[in-house]
Amino acid sequence: MNRFDVSVSMRSALLLGLAACVIGAFGICSPMAIAQGTSTETIVTVKAKPKEIAPPVPQSAIEVKVDNKPVTLTGWGSVMGPGRGIQLVFLMDGQLRMAVGKELQDIINFFMQLPPSVELSVGYMENGQVSILQGFTADHALAAKAMQLPYGRAAMNGSPYFCLSELAKNWPSHDPSKMRAVFMVTDGVDRYYGAQSMDMDDPYVQAAIKDAQVAGISVSSMYYRDAGLVDLTQSATISGQGLLQQVSQATDGEAYYEGDRSPISMTPYLDRYKARLNNEYVATFMAPGTGLQPIKIESKVKGIKVTSADHVQVGNMLSRSDGK
Prior knowledge:
By secondary structure, the protein is of the alpha/beta class. The chain has two domains: 1-36; 37-324, von Willebrand factor, type A domain (Rossmann fold). Helices cover 30% and strands 27% of the residues. It has helices spanning 3-25, 31-35, 104-113, 140-145, 160-169, 203-215, 234-251, 267-278; strands spanning 38-46, 62-66, 69-71, 73-78, 86-93, 118-126, 129-137, 179-186, 217-223, 255-256, 280-287, 292-299, 306-308, 311-313. Strands 7-6-5-8-9-10 form a six-stranded mixed sheet. It has a four-stranded antiparallel sheet with strand order 4-11-1-13. It has a four-stranded antiparallel sheet with strand order 3-2-12-14. Helix 3 runs parallel beside helix 8.
């Protein structure tokens, strides 16, 4: 190769490099653009029939887009796999009345059936804050001993969403290997914003969703209609269930309810939630941008459906609470 050929080759390489930069600037995908970003993790749930465990899902079956840009998975594995696990805060609404006592044994049975990879914490939502009665422990019998009847006083908990925000900002652990999950037993009514309000753009709910997403928390809930006369109205029931559903969909949780009444037994729904935990994966990828970014995760294999939170905090390694 002569000097002229070398010069042409160098100019061609330079032009190609500039073209890649221009293409990346306009959001058109290139291998170079895809490789850039910040290592980020999120939870992906494989959908299965109620109470059933989904078959193993290979990494090659998953397609991830962050801010509508395709990214490549750099890691994929079961949440229950080696070196992983779940930190689950089980929250009871402090204003639920004595009737919820008949469900305590169902809850205790659920605790005792969880695998050791699930660390449990028990808390009560009171006056916009979370009172932790038992910190995270793999001793599920110890967590079960912390279960007690709520106080059952009207307005004891003005908003479960204030409580969720407070918990998300002050997660009682800094273990980077564990995913974060919350299961709330509540009527879902936000009395701070208006018990009868049908507004699904409740600012306190939106703040709780954002706080949970920043902290990497999956939020599931059980609707329990037992907090006083206000919950007997149809508007309060619709509002409470709708808000709980909104939080769960945005954070890749699940909202459980049985019509417009409290469940006869929590066991079937707790069994479904237990199976759900076994169907969750950790997806690791290089995410573009900063802060909260929209994310979409799909399966490329027919018959396999997956879900995730609708936004991910770039740089979030599941349990990091600083949001960086």
